[in-house]
Amino acid sequence: MDLVNKAIEFENRKMRFPTTSDRILASREAKSLILALNEIYKETKDGKLMDIMKRLTAKKQKIEKRLKGKPLTA
Predict the structure, then answer these.
(1) What is the pTM of this model?
(2) Burial class (CB in 10 A: 0-12, 13-18, 19+), 39
């Protein structure tokens, strides 16, 4: 369950990304963790994995929202 440990470590990491490239890398890392956990979940149907995936998805969405920035108003 090394993958689960990586996911929990990512989740507990401080989400402070000073540059855009850091945010992009964090978003990609979250996506790869979610997809890998999903493959395991398909076989085991473990509810704990689903909870981890939900929390990672929420964190990934926050990162992506920050990437898109504020909409410009005319």
Answers:
(1) 0.81
(2) exposed
Residue that the structure tokens 């992506």 belong to: 64
Q: How far apart are alpha carbons 36 and 41 in whole angstroms?
A: 9
Residue type, 61: Q
Nearest-10 Cα torsion for 29, 19, 62, 32? -10
Q: What is the C-alpha separation between 72 and 74, in angstroms, rounded?
A: 7
Q: What is the C-alpha to C-alpha distance for residues 53 and 59, in angstroms, rounded to an integer?
A: 10
What does the pLDDT look like over 5-63, one tens digit per residue? 999 898 888 878 788 888 889 899 999 999 999 999 999 998 899 999 999 999 999 88
